């Protein structure tokens, strides 16, 4: 289940791309399939071990271009172990809301992205997240949980304040917000609740089959209750450089 739209965030074979806070690796795997030289970065060793195994399986199954590469790196988002301007593109999906010093993490993203490079950031949308916080204390107070709720305006303002340019936004996963409201209402760790289990089966079915009816429903729901908001940014090109944001970013809404 991808949150970043790779029609808006075009990734070319051979580009160096960082998936910062990769988690289980869903975006890293897609980047690898598209031929990028991917670095999956996270603090969680167990998550990275699973990502590394999947990278190997994808290579063995011939799911990735021969020239593509993938690696896992463990570290802290506040001190990325990469040189300045190292990456062509960066994905930071559902991670900034976990980091108390988010501005420092944002500055690190700016530092390791090349001039003219692009950044895709996803965070929980304000309204669905407010409902979750209101329904459940456990949802946001568990260790490693969410420490803030962003409005899109706040997220954009913070990244603009350190020099990024905004290229557009959209919302995603409108069908998933009600699931998390149910989970919060019945207990976020209550996996045996019949209503939560039934809704989860529907979501799995939708992800696997992608029927037209649910695609249309999600398109309608996304602007209203999309669980995530996705914002695209560009690091300004260096003075005298001809690099600029690809045209598709200007069309993102």
UniProtKB/TrEMBL annotation:
Which keywords does the record carry? Methyltransferase, Transferase
The Methyltransferase type domain extends over 18-120
Task: Read off the Pfam families from this record.
Answer: Methyltransf_11
Q: What is this enzyme's EC?
A: 2.1.1.-
Gene3D superfamilies found in the cross-reference section: Vaccinia Virus protein VP39 (3.40.50.150)
Q: Which residues form the signal peptide?
A: none
Where are the coiled-coil regions? none
Q: What GO terms in the biological process aspect are recorded for it?
A: methylation
Q: What class of enzyme is it?
A: transferase
Q: Name one GO molecular function term.
A: methyltransferase activity
**Which SUPFAM superfamilies does the entry link to?**
S-adenosyl-L-methionine-dependent methyltransferases
Listed PANTHER family: METHYLTRANSFERASE (PTHR43591)
Provide the protein name. Class I SAM-dependent methyltransferase
């Amino acid at each position: 289940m991808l949150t970043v739209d790779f029609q808006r965030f075009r990734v070319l074979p051979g580009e160096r791309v960082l998936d910062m806070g990769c988690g289980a690796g869903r975006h890293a795997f897609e980047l690898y399939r598209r031929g990028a030289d991917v670095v999956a970065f996270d603090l969680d060793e167990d998550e990275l071990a699973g990502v590394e195994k999947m990278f190997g399986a994808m290579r063995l199954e011939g799911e990735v271009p021969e020239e593509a590469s993938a690696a896992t790196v463990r570290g802290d988002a506040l001190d990325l172990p990469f040189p300045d301007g190292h990456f062509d593109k960066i994905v930071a999906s559902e991670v900034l809301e976990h980091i108390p010093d988010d501005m420092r993490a944002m500055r690190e993203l700016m530092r390791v992205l090349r001039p003219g490079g692009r950044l895709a950031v996803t965070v929980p949308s304000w309204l669905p997240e407010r409902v979750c916080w209101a329904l459940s204390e456990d949802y946001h107070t568990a260790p490693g949980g969410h420490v803030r709720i962003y409005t899109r305006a706040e997220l954009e303002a913070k990244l603009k304040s350190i020099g990024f340019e905004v290229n557009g936004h959209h919302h995603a996963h409108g069908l998933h917000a009600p699931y998390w409201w149910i989970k919060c209402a019945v207990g976020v760790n209550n996996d045996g609740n019949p209503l939560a289990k039934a809704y989860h089966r529907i979501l799995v079915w939708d992800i696997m089959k992608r029927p037209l009816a649910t695609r249309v429903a999600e398109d309608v729901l996304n602007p209203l209750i999309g669980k995530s908001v996705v914002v695209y940014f560009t690091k300004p090109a260096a003075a005298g450089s001809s690099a600029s944001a690809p045209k598709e970013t200007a069309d993102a809404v």
